[in-house]
Write a structure and sequence with these properties.
single chain; mainly alpha; two-stranded antiparallel ribbon; 4 strands; 4% strand
Length: 237
């Protein structure tokens, strides 16, 4: 009797298995400490096969970063419904961001902790991802200013600064957010912590942006604009 041939795993599937194993290993061990032996063992393949497919530890790490970057950006953009009001789009985008980082904590750890701290070319990949998200948020803030009729009052640089601040705060908040996932009535996974984190960001950022859109500004000398006028009128009475 002839030997029974084992079913061959397609290269694309095998490569994703290696990348999955690499994400877990890099997140738990760090880039420097992680070894190709560990990654191969976690993927259930030989170390030579990992080198054959992905060539080197540096190239493997770069491929992991690109994959996790693309997945995160896709999750954020897919959560947004075009045509909605700017605040609703931002809420949906934030919820998508926090849900994705909750579902993929190892991938987020690789992007937010590992890739940033090991220099080029890794940090450049993360910077490109951040630039995509900042551009998206900048567009939403600009849209909100236009809806409020104060687009001319907010300088382009100020809008960009607000977007950078909001994205930076969201990145920090993702480290704090609870990663628990529950199944909702729809049968799809729901993320109470993701929604809580998104609401925290909206209360922190959008409430302040709303006042800014109303012409109210903080200065070292105190509030200016309509809010300051209302307070002055109240004390006058």
């Amino acid at each position: 009797m002839g030997a029974v041939k084992s079913k061959r795993v397609p290269r694309a599937v095998r490569e994703q298995q290696m990348l999955d194993a690499a994400v877990l290993t890099f997140a738990r061990r760090g880039y420097r400490a992680a070894s190709m032996d560990e990654i191969a063992e976690a993927a259930g393949v030989s170390k030579p096969l990992v080198y054959l497919y992905l060539h080197s530890k540096e190239e493997l790490f770069s491929t992991v970063i690109r994959r996790e970057r693309a997945a995160l950006v896709a999750a954020v953009t897919a959560a947004v419904e075009p045509g909605e009001a700017a605040d609703r789009q931002l809420w949906n985008g934030l919820t998508g961001f926090f849900a994705h980082t909750a579902e993929n904590p190892e991938g987020w750890a690789v992007l937010h902790q590992q890739a940033r701290t090991h220099g080029e070319p890794f940090a450049l990949e993360v910077a490109a991802m951040r630039a995509e998200i900042v551009a998206f948020v900048t567009e939403l803030i600009g849209m909100a200013a236009k809806e409020a009729g104060c687009a001319g009052e907010l300088a382009e640089r100020e809008v960009a600064g607000l977007a950078h601040a909001l994205v930076g705060a969201a990145e920090s908040l993702a480290e704090w957010a609870n990663i628990r996932t529950d199944e909702g009535p729809s049968g799809r996974p729901e993320h109470p912590a993701a929604k809580d984190a998104a609401a925290t960001m909206m209360n922190f950022a959008w409430a302040g942006l709303g006042r800014l859109m109303d012409g109210e500004r903080w200065t070292p000398g105190g509030l200016t604009g309509r809010l300051a006028q209302r307070r002055a009128e109240r004390f006058a009475h």
